[in-house]
Amino acid sequence: MRYLLPLLLSFLFFSCGNDTPPPPAMPPLSDLPLIPLPVEISNSEGYLYVNPAKSFANEGADAGAMAYLKSKKVPALPLTTSMDTNLQLMDGAYLLQIAPEGVNISAKDQAGLLNGAITLEQVVAFSPNTERGLFLSAGTITDQPRYAYRGYMLDVARTFFGVDTVKQVIDRISTYKINHLHLHLSDDQGWRIEIKSWPGLAQIGGMFEVDGTRGGYYTQEDYKEIVRYAAVQGITIVPEIDMPGHTNAALNAYAELNLDGKARDPYVGTDVGFSTLDANKEVTYEFIDAVVGEIAAITPGPYFHIGGDESAVTPHDDYVKLIRRAQKIVISHGKKSIGWDEVALAGLDEGSVAQLWASAEYALKAKEGGNQVLFSPATRTYLDMQYDSLSPLGLHWAAYIEVDSAYLWDPKTMVDGITDADILGIEAPLWGETIRSIEDIDYLTFPRLLALAEVAWTPQPQRNYEDFLRRLRAQQDWLKEKGIGTYDTRVLK
Ligand code: IFG
Fold first, then answer.
1. Which of 15, 332, 452, 486 is deepest in the core (most CB within 10 A)?
2. Ligand 1 in contact with 310 (CB < 6 A)?
């Protein structure tokens, strides 16, 4: 008799034509370990069951959202999307509704639909998915970003990383709603992008990297492939050509760019602040215009980064002259200029951005000039900083940065006089002096990037460190399941 009743019940259950099996134990939607934490999650009755044998036409579902889900191998499920440009939502906002009948994502722009798809990827990843099928708890997620620009910088100049590695980085960071990838394409040790009118820059300037190993560079076709691949995952590429300092690779390639007309030797050390372009030669501006023009022509995104950091051997007036002309050149090619915070000393054109890394004073100067600031304070966001004194990789000139330091800060209180309206966003730079592989990139990037992704996305009132750690614990397991070598942070011990 003991077996008869359940047998009878399951017979009744299946015989009523509903192929929905009884659900396993399911966490409510609001308990899922989503990072970055959405603004609001409300649970509702029931769940969506997805039979693995079924396929779904998803007629009319947004192609961008579908392409993202496909790129992340999210199982087929009933999905509808709706874009309504009249929705009173901010850019990138979305509504993700999960009901027994299916999933809907609605937004007012493409970025919003994509953000909804990214959240759906994580909802699926942390929901019961067995051979019987996928079970998603019902509910609604209402969400929007705190900052528009949520970035990651990869220094490919100190150590060159080929297209496939950059694609692996893109796959990793998009899952956390990072939507800009800043590529540091030139420095003293290497020039990493083909410039057709100045071929020696990549062919000569790209030969080496730190420690003198073979370097490399992206052809313009390689760069276009990176741009295309990133766009599918909602990521805009921001190219940087650092100037007037950090230019030894270009000075090694072309004698005429040097103050004394003599080509510099290749440099494979890790010192900074010893190189400069000549602000008083016209050939310098022909060089800048050619480089910016060729890269801007294959960069759909709105930004071009001119560097401007650590120009210790450039006389002040020369620095001001060159940075002012470089901004004008960038603008003439239809882009907005971003520069490390020293560029504020030169005076910024309308729309130019200063990237805070070391000087609150310069950041404030930019703000007072009516310009926005991109926040990359080295003490909180520099992923090339060691976690602690035992870290085998990284530096610590700015700070040791564990997950707590990366999480426990509020950008709008970091610099007196700079509020959220002045902050374009947050960017986490990974400088390349001490990394050589994707494993090294993973070790320094994860899990701190998850903390910074939440700083960049989630409104301050919703942020709670203990709850972040609860969610981080599950995310660490997911990262490891995916073969991503995340650091075993001591904050979870
Ligand atoms: N500062 C330099 C980088 C790099 C970094 C390493 C900036 C803007 C130290 N400039 O950060 O080139 O060397 O942590």
1. 452
2. yes
